[in-house]
Amino acid sequence: MVDLVASTQPNAQPGVSRGESTRFLVSDLCKMLEVYLPPEQVREVYRTYLYAAEAHTGQNRQSGEPYIFHPLAVARVMAGMRMDHHSIMAAILHDVMEDTPVTKDQLRETFGEEVAELVDGVSKLTHLKFQSYAEAQAENIRKMMMAMVRDLRVILVKLADRLHNMRTLSALRSDKRRRIARETLEIYAPIAQRLGMNALRRELETLGFAALYPVRFRVLSAAVERARGRRKELMQNVEAAIVRRLEEAGIQARVVGREKNLYSLYRKMRAKRMPFSEVFDVFAIRIVVTDIDTCYRALGITHNLYKPVAGHFKDYIAIPKANGYQSLHTVLFGPHGIPIEVQIRSEEMDRVAESGIAAHWLYKSGEGGNAGAGTQARAREWLKGILEMQQRAGSSLEFLENVKVDLFPDEVYIFTPKGDIMELPRGATAVDFAYAVHSDVGNTCVAAKIDRHLAPLSAPLESGQTVEIITSPTARPNPAWLNFVVTAKARTGLRHRLKSLQGDEAIALGRRLMEKSLSASGKTLESIDPAHLAELLAAWGLADLDALLNDVGLGNRLAPLAVRRLLGECDESDAAATAQTTGGKPLVIRGSEGLVLTFAKCCYPLPGDPIAGVLSAGRGLVVHRETCRNVVEFRDKADRWMPLQWSDEPAGEYAAAIRVMVSNQRGMLAQMAARIAEMESNIENVSFEERDSMLTTMTFVLSVRDRRHLAHIMRRLRAIPEVSKIARVRG
């Protein structure tokens, strides 16, 4: 198999000290190309080299070597992928537009349109001025991604360029090394992963990790080295046992041990806050067989040899990852109870897993047949989404933010009510799912059912769940959704819809809501006293009536509050007086000024809960938790129901209800009351329900500051041995 990211040094390993041999010449490149390209195309590449060498004459890299060595090294990486001759030519020319007087028109005239477009796609925007370095980088990445939409080879040239730059990073000063390494880890390595190019991605991550965190890299490397010595014999025994069982079953296979990427280990330790001693999947075993059927046979053999760990089996053959990756993943209880990760895949799957979209060129003339074709199709689907993001993004910085969001490392698989499978990034919510189905579904969703139960729109989804979206024609997206959506499609769709609502649609909706609120008083907008309107507009800093209607339509202002002000029923001083207070401080829920606020006693909302409000005669705005059963009937009534959002720092204390099941013993109430008091909370009410002579259920209504305070109290009560169950009361 051809090494996708072959170094110019034989047997070199990725790492901080990796260098590039200065003896790699154009003749060496031509020898590589002669293996798979016809002579006339190799001559074209040689002519390109002569042109680039002349253009870069007198230029040196930071290391002091002639600049032409860099384009040659990039071309070698491309040759390792067995790319077509136009891609090799673009790799050799990739810096001439940026660093020399050569123009795109000159390249087009000398080498043709195809090569000129590839070089232009990789070249940075050096002739434009930007307000900041961040904006310049964002615009350059935006330009590259748009060129990538037109021709996938652009990103392959750019990744090869970035790989060689990372291999020779030691020549730069430390601050520049860190900046380039961070950009590599945040942008280029995830792009390589998204395109299924795992071999290249692993080297980019290793080099980036070593440059950005050199001390952490050395410490973790030393820890892995020590673990390798301790587990070497164990892994050899496991490999030998698997090989023996496969041979007995007549299965031809390659069984190889592998080490987890250092950067992947580092990210896992950080995300789960775990020491290295608790990481068990440092080493894994890969089984490569001939075809799909044999993959499942090999899985059965390994499960018979060692028992599988429940909940750790993943079938990426039946449901491939977004980048085309296919494999069976399982974790086994090895000797001495040590978990061992096993991957099982076919030869073609292994090639695609390592090379990704490059497998299309790497193996199209060999045994691989259509290897990489499915990955390319998935990449093009992703790029369609990139193009949609570009069209809707307000700026290059917003576009870059959306691209970063979309370069997710893990996926969850969600079922629609009809049984179709949808793929979403880990952490995706029901709103992300709604926008993945269709933008119109996302724009009009009001609630979600997860496995047939109502759930918050902000609840993270898990693989295997069935999600049903409830929509309403009159619904509109809530700006607060931007705080929890994770997919770029949801983020761009949501922002685009919110921007469009700021036009005629928002004004029309605001007018309908205002007219409906005024109708209770027998008034219309036309009959409002102009003096009251002018006073309200001045108090709220609005230019005219349309600006007020726009604010109401977007949900920034409540129609009933605006109506009360227009009718002269309250002023700013009344607004502060009528707001519900807790703990001596005004309750801070955005957009609720001037309304009496009441907390629903059915669900007891707390700061941190997703909340919604229902306008009720005599009670003002009743605040419910978003999942409360009592607000479902109001979701499609835009004049009475609205999503709410807590302020950043809501003050005061709030009522919360918990239900505790305890052993029916003397002194239990006193013991729990003491613990609640220790946690700085008061008991506002307590009720009892005796289940039987052994168990009693107590329901406490407590004063708490927020959800975290309540969680601490529940954890403290759960520590009492006699407490068998404790849960928060839900609406």
From TrEMBL:
Keywords: Hydrolase, Kinase, Transferase. This is guanosine-3',5'-bis(diphosphate) 3'-diphosphatase. Signal peptide: none annotated. Residues 410-471 form the TGS domain. SMART domains: HDc, RelA_SpoT. Residues 657-731 form the ACT domain. Its EC number is 3.1.7.2. GO terms for cellular component: plasma membrane. In eubacteria ppGpp (guanosine 3'-diphosphate 5'-diphosphate) is a mediator of the stringent response that coordinates a variety of cellular activities in response to changes in nutritional abundance. It catalyses: guanosine 3',5'-bis(diphosphate) + H2O = GDP + diphosphate + H(+). GO terms for molecular function: GTP diphosphokinase activity; guanosine-3',5'-bis(diphosphate) 3'-diphosphatase activity; kinase activity. Pathway: Purine metabolism; ppGpp biosynthesis; ppGpp from GDP: step 1/1. GO terms for biological process: guanosine tetraphosphate biosynthetic process; nucleobase-containing small molecule interconversion; response to starvation. The lineage of its organism: Bacteria, Pseudomonadati, Pseudomonadota, Gammaproteobacteria, Chromatiales. It comes from Acidihalobacter aeolianus. Residues 67-166 form the HD domain. CDD domains: ACT_RelA-SpoT, HDc, NT_Rel-Spo_like, TGS_RSH. Belongs to the relA/spoT family.
